[in-house]
Write a structure and sequence with these properties.
Number of helices of chain A: 0
Radius of gyration of chain A: 13 Å
Helix content of chain A: under 10%
Distance between the termini of chain A: 39 Å
Helix content of chain B: under 10%
Shape of chain A: globular
Strand content of chain A: over 45%
Order of helices and strands of chain A: EEEEEEEEEEE
Largest sheet of chain A: 6 strands, mixed
Strand content of chain B: over 45%
Oligomer: heterodimer
Shape of chain B: globular
Order of helices and strands of chain B: EEEEEEEEEEE
Number of strands of chain A: 11
Radius of gyration of chain B: 13 Å
Amino acid sequence: SQQGEEDPQALSIQEGENATMNCSYKTSINNLQWYRQNSGRGLVHLILIRSNEREKHSGRLRVTLDTSKKSSSLLITASRAADTASYFCATDDGNNRLAFGKGNQVVVIP
Amino acid sequence: SAVISQKPSRDICQRGTSLTIQCQVDSQVTMMFWYRQQPGQSLTLIATANQGSEATYESGFVIDKFPISRPNLTFSTLTVSNMSPEDSSIYLCSVGSTVFKETQYFGPGTRLLVL
């Protein structure tokens, strides 16, 4: 399976600021997904972008995908304290088997 | 979205013993998966739990170490056999969405510590 990889960032931002995370992968994909994990608990699906899409929005989330560079970014606008979590990208090669990246820890300071 | 529960939520086990983790879903699902998340690490897919047939294991994972059962479309178990401290991890089950097939819903995880 593929391996999504985030830049190993630990972001600490003030509430109201934007948070950006990046993810790169190595082989072809069917789609790329972003998940959030709070304090080592289960993951919550945030957004999915297909390989033929370049940008997608969902609420305060904006995800981009550049298949030529094999990279994706997740932007959280107007961050809130409740956004404090680890964020993972995961690639799907079309067989529903997800390959997760290392994750980004985001701390939003009230 | 599916509601997924796991039992136990956490456990502390002795080296050499085995632990069976249960995953229960509130609706019938086709796809069920088991992941491992080692301390401070990302998730790694262990296997796909297939209903009525043997699980499909990823590279580096074998049935003798991680036997999986899937007796019906709402339930699966993962056993961690002959445990060592290196097996200390969070084990998560997930299911594929019946509506958005690529999306997965995750259980709360089972936090395992092996002494």
